Every structure is written in structure tokens, then in C-alpha cells.
Amino acid sequence: MEIIRDRNRSFNLNEFLQKPLFAHLSTSTKDHNPRESPVWFHWEHECIWIIGTSSDSFPGRIKEKAECAIGIVDFDHTTGKVLHAGFRGHATVEPFDKGIAERLLSRYLGPEEKNWDPRFRNLDDSNVLIRFVPETVVVRDQSFEPSI
User: Which pLDDT value is given to residue 147?
Assistant: First the structure.
């Protein structure tokens, strides 16, 4: 994975990827129409993992065209913090792995599955995992001084 950093405006990518932020998965259809899906993610072994369900359309698009992109932004308008990581690479649809899914969901929902929203409890093989392998990532701190 090639990391492209703005020398004057960079940040620690691994620390950033440990935060429970939203990612935006960009794929395209057979007709080359772009699609964007907001997703939760888990960073492990230099891969981004995403859970897909039977009602999601992005696993099908990934099966047809593996090239995709992911953007993740940590933004706080009150402090002016804007950290952005933009990934380009390939994704595959993988069989469901309960361990990866639990690690992913616990970042957002807390460590106790019994306390999670019922929609996220007891996921099974009706789900899939998306394994995104980045080829390049652009890391940029675009923070500003707020006028508030």
C-alpha cells in the first residue's frame, strides 16, 4: 500500500482508523454509474472490512467490478478539525466471519452484544464481509481555524 502524505498537513493513519467513523464506499454499476454507500468499517491487517446484508446492493457491484474507493473523514466544525483519508483499491466479497463482524460492530455499539440494537445482534451467514485492500491512500489534514 502506497501512502501519499501532504508533508505539512498529515496525521497518524493507524490512530485515525481506530476511531468509529463513517466510511463512504464508492463503487460503480455495470453501466459505469457511480454509487456511494455510507458504511461502518474495521481496519485489520491493512484491510478495511465492511459488513454487507442481503438487502445491500454494494456486494453485487463489487462482485462485478472489484475496483472501488473509500473515503473517511473526521470532521468537527466547532474545532475546525478535518482529517481525511482517501483509499483506492480492490474489494472482494468474503464469507461471513463472526469474529471480524463482532470486532467491527463493537467499535460502534460497545463491547456487550446484548446491549446492541437488535438489528445487529446474532448476525449469521446470511451476511457477507467486504474485504477492501487499498493500493493507495491519500492522508491529509485539512483542518482550519473556526470563526465561531
Answer: 85
